[in-house]
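Page 42, continued from yesterday. The earlier attempt failed because a stray header line got pasted into the input along with the sequence. Redoing it now with the clean sequence only.
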Amino acid sequence: MYQIGNFSECSTRERMSFAGKDAETQAEKFLFQNHYQFQRYGLEAGNTTVSEAMKLPATIRMKPDYLVKQLGNYSFVEAKGCGSFGLKIKLSSIEAMREWQKKAPVLMFIWHGSTKQFAFLTLGKLMELCHGLPVSIFENDGREYYQVPCSYFNWQSL
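This time it went through. Structure tokens are written below.
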């Protein structure tokens, strides 16, 4: 069980139980409603600790959340959450998804926690939306990210 101070030593399963799973919960609802067969694919499905996972190459550590099948075609789905500030997406996450795109199409499920709406788009479309945006730096870990305004997405209701 997580205790303040040892978050990096808990398993990814334990860590993710504390991380707010709204985007994944809503993605699963969407996938089910739209007749996708799906299964969890990322490290959250196992019990690897965060510190152990950080030793893995990014493309292994940063797997898409779901492997999905619809009408005989396979793809990956990555679920991300955002709020009224827009979607903050790390450049490292985009690069990892680009590597997975070489194996099968990567689709992005974006859940807007404030409006309770979603956007479903290809990785390519997300990259187009990021084009020309300034790169910002997260204060807590120094990683680079894009902040994609909410107005860039075509929001839908579940």
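Notes: The domain at 21-43+58-152 is CATH 3.40.1350.10 (Trna Endonuclease; Chain: A, domain 1).
Reminder to self: strip header lines before submitting.
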